[in-house]
């Protein structure tokens, strides 16, 4: 029951006993009801975002790796600020102690961390208090394409935070290496559907296993076409990615 409803219930009793006139009642309502009503309002903090990318304002593709290791106990709001223009480029949310990796656009950025216990929204972040704060990681980190197909990124490990200051942070290189593979297969009838059975080493007839039966997407596409020259070799081009130093 709200404060106004309580006042309305006790008003007749106060007036009969002479403790409170109608005019005094109106003054009391006007002066104290807003204060009591405000005390009754409890605003629940918003739920923290899921760990990962929140927004990318650069308009560039995010393809370079950034991994951040954090101590448990507090969450982090990470902002990448363009080192040349001081414009916020990307933001992400990190649950302290949990695995975090995000892909970022090319460029040189200052990493700004805000941390705290209770998330209060993107405008207020974690609010103010003893357990909240922010810091910038210096020097800026550059994300770029190295060589013909290596996407150079970074691994950042935050070790400890004390008095709103970053005590130690280890930064290591972390890259995604791409390998281009071009393959060709010589004519081999047993690779295709409906291939004739051949005699194996034990003297029995068995159909040779084909790449199509193993789920090869290239041969599956190849088998759906009408071949005028089924004995010709097929070609396959593939790009494989892996994390490397």
Describe this structure in words.
This protein is an alpha+beta fold and 245 residues long. It is built from 3 helices and 12 strands; from the N terminus they run H-H-E-E-E-E-E-E-E-E-E-E-E-H-E. The protein has helices at residues 3-16, 22-40, 217-224; strands at residues 52-56, 64-69, 75-82, 88-94, 101-104, 107-116, 133-146, 150-162, 165-185, 198-199, 205-206, 234-244. The strands form 2 sheets. Strands 1, 2, 3, 4, 5, 6, 7, 8, 9 and 12 form a 10-stranded mixed β-sheet that branches. It has a two-stranded antiparallel sheet with strand order 10-11. A hairpin with a 5-residue loop joins strand 3 and strand 4.
**Uncertain regions spanning at least 5 consecutive residues:** 187-192, 195-225
Q: In what range is the share of β-strand residues?
A: 35-45%
Outline the biggest β-sheet.
10 strands, mixed
Helix count, per DSSP? Answer: 3
- Name the helix and strand elements from N-terminus to C-terminus, one letter apiece: HHEEEEEEEEEEEHE
State the distance separating the first and last CA atoms: 64 Å
Please give the radius of gyration in angstroms. 33 Å
Shape: elongated
What do the pLDDT scores average to? 74
